[in-house]
Amino acid sequence: MREIIPLNTDWKYVEGFEQAFIEKDFDDSGFVKVDLPHANKEIPYNYFDEKMYQFVSCYRKEFEVPVLSGGRRVLLDFEGVMAYAKVYVNSKYAGEHKGGYTPFSFDITDLVEENKPNLLTVMVDSTERRDIPPFGYVIDYLTYGGIYREVSLRIVDGVYIDNAHIRTGAVLKDRKSIAAYVYCINTTGIEHRAKMSLVLKDGDQIVAETTLEAAIGKSSEEVLNIELDGIENIDLWDIDSPKLYDAEIRLESDEFSDTFATRIGFREAVSKEDGFYLNGRKVKLRGLNRHQSYPYVGYAMPKRVQRKDADILKNELGLNIVRTSHYPQSRHFIDRCDELGLLVLEEIPGWQHIGDDE
Fold first, then answer.
1. Element (H or E) spanning 119, and its range?
2. Does residue 102 have a pLDDT over 60?
């Protein structure tokens, strides 16, 4: 089974970067101790020069991994770094990522030592680079810098579920459906047969489930499909009654096992010439745009405050929709919107914004 190990505390940070910083024996006693989420520069409340946070910085952290028996793998997951990150583990290059708003992962199994201190070093470039959207001197908002979202280790078996896309169907009918596209990673280099299950739960109660035999090829990536039909007695997700269910995808064999879990709701959202319809009912939308920035620390706010923003929008301002302008925002904020019955309008990369009235 997968194991998640948070890596959000006891980092060391310095403004600037030198190649010597990636070495395990480098003396980092002059670095500042910080926790994540972290802003690379504390900024004034009022006017300031945006060049204040546009520089290269360095983060270092020691961590341990358990014994990796049975071909288990270690994945290093970042939820957001602004704007370009280059990652080293035990002085060796692990990978890099461009883009400050999307999560990314590296398989660091071959770089770590079991039950020993390991060194994680991250070079963070927070400058506005022309090769990283949305820069190009045409944006109308600030981007800030730092490792501003959470970081964790994910320990998995040699075959595991990397992600899943789950879609609901026939939501306005008595018998509803779910289709799941399951993205599997096979690091073993051999073919496998496994049992894959899709389980829909309401708390501890199983609402519906299905199981099939899955063939997993020896190629590194495989997309599997599983469907659950004829689901009855489902409450719809609505603005005033945001019912959510737990969906679990389980992959099991004698050699490996993994479970991917998420929360879903059943709803139909349709825009027509005469307005917006939710579950067949016309709804007047009242909403605002939301940026993810905060006073003093820019983008760097933890789960509690991200969720509080959704509470304010729904309960204090009386809104029923929020537009995430103009980028993927914290999963903690989106999850809370789902729980509260707050619709989320997420902009799709590549769409051209015409105007607030169109």
1. strand 118-125
2. yes
